[in-house]
Write a structure and sequence with these properties.
Layout: E1 11-14, E2 17-20, E3 23-25, E4 28-30, E5 35-39, E6 46-51, H1 55-74, H2 77-93, H3 95-106, H4 110-134, E7 140-142, E8 145-153, E9 156-160, H5 166-179, E10 183-187, H6 194-206, E11 213-215, H7 220-228, E12 235-239, H8 242-255, E13 259-262, E14 268-271, H9 277-286, E15 300-304, H10 305-320, H11 340-355, E16 359-362, E17 378-381, H12 388-391, E18 398-404, H13 407-414, E19 422-426, H14 430-439, E20 444-447, E21 466-467, H15 472-479, E22 480-487
Parallel strand pairs: 9-10, 9-12, 10-11, 12-13, 14-15, 14-19, 15-18, 17-18, 19-20
Antiparallel strand pairs: 1-2, 3-4, 5-6, 7-8, 8-22, 13-21, 16-17
Helix pairs in contact: 1-7, 2-4, 2-6, 3-4, 4-5, 9-10
Bound molecules: adenosine-5'-diphosphate.
Length: 496
């Protein structure tokens, strides 16, 4: 807190980039008495001591956001949009630094941070800035009275993000929340807190007024819990696990704070005998991206029996061709998992599945050659639909394969978990694609493709994969309080 001494130990240089790992509250850096150690999954090296916030820091950040809210909400849309474009410019200027720091921090591939993720971060800011300028509802008339719907900013928003795509997911929430005229307190995950600190620098350099964006660092059950239970918070957006979502929704319920929850998945990847088999195999191997630490991953391969053997043969060849290694190396396809606890968790799922009779036809354990936090890309067969490995999200490079004989059976297996985030469909028959898609429980269905995501599209999940949709104007629906103003005709009757 402001009164406490600022110690030099809480700032760090990561991949050659200076990172201030204190909180960012009301336009100034604020240290906590306590810190936590942030380690790189690449080599286990301590990267930084990061300020460990709690109730006091959460309170200060929400107060700063509340104080900045009236001014930001009243800022004309065009000016808000201009500032968000300036943030995007800053992200682009520092793209290489952001990519390097993110890779050091969460172990995901540098090449995808450089070429995919960080450009997307900038695009998130630009997209929601532009969307703001065209955001409108139709005006309409009721018996001579005009109806005008306006998008009022809601107030301070708390945004809680996970470690698998830290800055991508932060920007996906921060950009629409700010565009809508809200102020923000961002709490990044404790396993990958660094790029949020850099985003605070970028926002300040872009000229965002003090208190509009605040960053509180800390652990989930300390800083996170204090933020989501704060009564002055008007929106909570969370991406993460189901158990944490339950706690957050519970805290939000006490204050009736609206929540948007983007949770996990156990998405099916259905391969019909009429599919382009090489394409289907490519799609399946893609599910190992980011070492399988992707909520959208289609981790349950459901393959029509008649082609299962050939599919497996080609899959094994493609999986063996993946290059595991240092995520900073351009040639690497598979980096480490994020944390020792995550590696152990993944391995626990696989051990229990093997004990229950599963067969590892590909991989099946940590990568002993590379050591560290690398897990071998794994494919398990002989798994029962009601088994843990089929029902629970592993969040690692672990796929299961089940077979089916009919379309009905395929759909039944596909829908047979408590999740409903995404589904991938490989088929050469467009009519089948339509039929099956209509029956799948999923927020997104990809037909003969994967991970194509347009910011205009709604994004979210059904069942335990989440509540609500973000993206396009759905983000503004969530981050705004909609108001309908009904005006009587001039000189007309006072009642409609
Ligand atoms: P995982 O289990 O995948 O590590 P979580 O869903 O627990 O991830 O964490 C995602 C984010 O939620 C992180 O930023 C974490 O700090 C935060 N978090 C964890 N517990 C809580 C909580 N009780 N209240 C608010 N945020 C939390």
């Amino acid at each position: 807190m402001p009164e406490q001494p600022r110690t030099a130990a809480v700032t760090a240089v990561v991949a050659g980039v200076p990172v201030d790992t204190r909180h960012w509250i009301g336009g100034r850096r604020v240290a906590s008495a306590g810190t936590f150690t942030d380690r790189s999954p690449i080599d286990g090296r301590a990267l930084a001591e990061v300020s460990r916030g709690g109730a006091a820091e959460a309170g200060a950040a929400v107060a700063a956001a509340a104080a900045a809210f009236p001014g930001w909400a009243a800022t004309p849309r065009a000016e808000r949009a201009r500032l968000l474009h300036a943030v995007a410019d800053g992200v682009q200027q520092r793209l290489e630094e952001l990519a390097q720091v993110e890779t050091a921090d969460n172990g995901a591939l540098l090449r995808s941070h450089r070429r995919g993720v960080m450009p997307r971060v900038a695009h998130n800011f630009r997209f929601f800035a532009d969307r703001l300028l065209t955001l409108d509802h139709e005006d309409f008339e009721t018996r001579g009275h005009s109806n005008h719907v306006s998008w009022d900013p809601a107030g301070p928003c708390v945004l809680i993000t996970p470690w698998n795509a830290p800055l991508m997911l932060a920007s996906w929430k921060v950009a629409p929340a700010l565009a809508a005229g809200n102020t923000v307190v961002l709490k990044p995950a404790e396993w990958s807190p660094l790029t949020a600190s850099l985003l605070a620098d970028i926002a300040a350099e872009a000229g965002l007024p003090d208190g509009v964006l605040n960053v509180v660092q800390g652990l989930g059950d300390e800083a996170g819990a204090a933020l989501v239970s704060h009564p002055d918070v008007r929106r909570i957006s969370f991406t993460g696990s189901v158990p944490t979502a339950r706690r957050i929704a519970g805290a939000a319920a006490a204050n009736l704070t609206p929540v948007s929850l983007e949770l996990g998945g156990k998405s099916p990847l259905l391969v019909f005998a009429d599919a382009d088999l090489d394409l289907a195999v490519d799609l399946a191997v893609e599910q190992y991206d980011n070492a399988g630490q992707v909520c959208l991953a289609g981790t349950r391969l459901l393959v029509e029996s008649s082609i299962a053997e050939e599919f497996l043969r080609r899959f094994a060849v493609r999986a063996a061709a993946l290059t595991p290694g240092d995520p900073r190396d351009e040639a690497t396809d598979l980096g480490p998992t994020v944390h020792r606890r995550q590696l152990d968790r993944i391995d626990g799922f696989v051990r229990r599945a093997l004990d229950a009779g599963a067969r590892a036809v590909v991989g099946g354990g940590p990568d002993e050659d590379l050591g560290g936090l690398h897990y071998r890309p794994t494919l398990l067969t002989d798994v029962a639909q009601d088994s843990e490995i089929v029902q629970e999200e592993v969040f690692g490079p672990v796929l299961t394969l089940q077979t089916f004989d009919t379309e009905d059976e395929a759909v039944e297996l596909a829908n047979g978990t408590r999740f409903g985030l995404a589904a991938v469909l490989a088929t050469g028959d467009p009519e089948r694609a339509d039929r099956v898609t209509a029956r799948l429980v999923a927020g997104t269905v990809w037909v003969n493709c994967f991970f194509v995501r347009d910011l205009r599209a709604p994004f979210g999940g059904s069942r335990h994969s989440g509540i609500g949709r973000e993206g396009g104007s759905w983000s503004f629906d969530f981050y705004c309080d909609l108001k309908n103003t009904v005006t009587a005709p001039k000189g007309g009757p006072g009642h409609g």
